[in-house]
Amino acid sequence: MSEVDVFISNYTLVDPEIYQLWIDGHTASEAVTILNSKGLGQKTGASLELIASDVLDHYRTYSLLEKLLNYPSKLQEQFIFQIDPQTRSFLIEKYYEFDDEVIREVLGKKLSSKNRKDLDEVAEKTGKPLKSCRRQFDNVKRIFKTVEELPGITTDNIKNNFCLPDELAKKYTCIVFTACMRFETSKKKVQQMSFNNFRICCEAMIDNWTYHLSGTDYNDLEMDREFLFELRDLKILMEKDKEHKHLLLVNLKPKLLQKSYVDLEANFKLYTRAILTLATTLHRSRDMKNFFVDLSQIVEYFKQNLWTSHDFEQFLIAYGQFAGDIDILRSNAALKASWEKFLKVITKCLLIMYS
Predict the structure, then answer these.
(1) How far is CA 292 from CA 145, 182, 327, in A?
(2) Nearest Cα to 31, choosing from 14, 44, 19, 43?
(3) Alpha-carbon span 355 to 352, nearest angstrom
């Protein structure tokens, strides 16, 4: 009879590679096939049956942990699984990581059971396992439901409630913000925007246009209504378009390609009205919802007329600067400050969309 050494421990072992396969939505049998194809058996001398047994054991553990991972604070408080702090952080972070292409497909959509049922289309389009798409959708919905009405800084609220690292919490903040604002993200004009494009734009909006205050009853998922209503007064710039145009052309003549300069001279009124109409209507929910669609239309005007990205950037910088030099803004400090806050965000967004 052969002798077998047995060691029993209640310490929870986590294999990062097997955990990642579980996170990615692979079945246990698929995980065994993947590990075997990487030569695990040859490296360790383990038989296929032993690899399969090990994978199943890990999968059972992760399935039991999943209920706790849905509420990470409980994972820190429980005593069933003996897990060191470093491993615990690893488990949580990996569980809440997401694929940008999957999130892009659900971005802006209602986090409803109907859309969850439609995730098979997302899985097919992105090439990600359906189980992984469901995990990512459920994580977004859970975080959204938890923090949407909490006062204060949303990134901090996410970190406190879900024990996520700063960078990942910031990403979720932008997803939650997009859901709260109900931005139109699926129309053809904005389909070319990646998740990262939306993230950069949303972070700029949160930092400049919301109640970005800690220790108050507000949160940074709410737009500063006073600021948005003040933007309506920028209509006055439409009446000053000749003065604005003159200042702009004088400044930009040595900086732009000739074809861009000629186009600006011919189409300044079209460009300025598109920008100012956007500014003066953002206080209306339906116009805020179409924010990115309206920005894409502005971008399209310039692309149709073959502006280079350099010339477009030069125009945006000068456009904002010289509008601020017109008497009506120069003599109204509050309105000028609102104009600068508006331009700071849309300049960043337009340049991201133009690239």
Answers:
(1) 24, 11, 30
(2) 19
(3) 6
Could you tell me if 169 and 188 are in contact, meaning their C-beta atoms sit under 8 angstroms apart?
A: no
Number of helices and strands in the chain (H, E): 22, 0
Query: Residue 82: phi, psi to the nearest 5?
Result: -85, 105
Six-digit token pair at 12? 């929870």
Q: For residue 87, which of 167, 23, 13 has the smallest C-alpha distance?
A: 13
User: Could you write out the DSSP letters of every residue in 297-341?
Assistant: HHHHHHHHTT--HHHHHHHHHHHHHHHTTSHHHHT-HHHHHHHHH
In sequence order, what are the residues at sequence separation of 6 or more whose Cβ sits closer than 8 angstroms to the Cβ of residue 336? 324, 329, 330
Tokens encoding 76: 């820190």
Q: How far is CA 227 from CA 137, 209, 222, 339, in A?
A: 33, 7, 12, 10
Those residues with Cβ within 8 angstroms of residue 24's Cβ, 6 or more apart along the chain or in another chain: 128, 129, 132
Q: What string of pLDDT tens digits covers the 355 residues of the chain?
A: 556 555 445 678 899 999 999 999 999 999 999 998 888 877 777 888 888 999 999 999 999 999 999 999 888 777 788 888 999 999 999 999 999 999 999 998 899 988 999 999 999 999 999 999 999 999 999 999 999 999 999 999 999 999 999 999 999 999 999 999 999 999 999 999 999 999 999 999 999 999 876 566 789 999 999 999 999 999 999 999 999 999 999 999 999 999 999 999 999 999 999 999 999 999 999 999 999 999 999 999 999 999 999 999 999 999 999 998 898 899 999 999 999 999 999 999 999 999 8
Q: What is the pTM of this model?
A: 0.91
